[in-house]
Amino acid sequence: MLNMAVLLSGSGRTLDNFHERIEAGSLHAKIQVVGSNVADALGLKKARKYEYPAFHAVGSNAVNKILADYDIDIIALAGYLKLYEPPKHLQRAVLNIHPSLIPSFCGAGFYGHYVHEAVKARGCKVSGCTVHFANEIYDEGPIVVQKCVALSDADTPDDIADRVFAAECEAFPEAINLVAEKGIDYFWNRA
Questions:
Q1: What is 1-91's CATH topology?
Q2: CA distance 64 to 77
Q3: Please, what CATH class does the domain formed by 97-191 belong to?
Q4: Active-site residue (options: 98, 113, 116, 132)
Q5: DSSP string of 44-96?
Q6: Is 28 a known active-site residue?
Q7: pTM for this one?
């Protein structure tokens, strides 16, 4: 079982998913702490409702100072919209989810709805999500899990977003469980 920190910037839908799966016994992790760079993020309110320690901090140094008080094996970026630099001992232990099939539609400027609009504009027939380890470059770390979703010409960016988020709800817990099973180094060493 992994001790996990969750960093978010928004509504906390991924936190909801993690919490529900932990309660059901299908996610082999324990949330130690939740942080946000947005003071009034709904995700922080949800974290407190779930009785997780929750904090607001801006910048990697401020976040890392708080995380130092917790026993953390892995950090999950759950819609955290800033480039995060972890402390040295967790440098290879940051998991991110991206709403496309990397290497498509990724990198600086490709996040959230911008990705789904670009997918629609390109006329893609599939999209999906990628759970990967994060490093100092957006969307460049080793891939852990990818899920694909079929698209139709009639899909709007909102339709694509809904379908991709449903895939994310499966992919992120699956990736965390794989990391718990195989270890972090397995993914870095095979990339």
A1: Rossmann fold (3.40.50)
A2: 14
A3: alpha beta
A4: 98
A5: HHHHHHTT--EEE--SHHHHHHHHTTS--SEEEESS--S-----GGGTT-EEE
A6: no
A7: 0.93
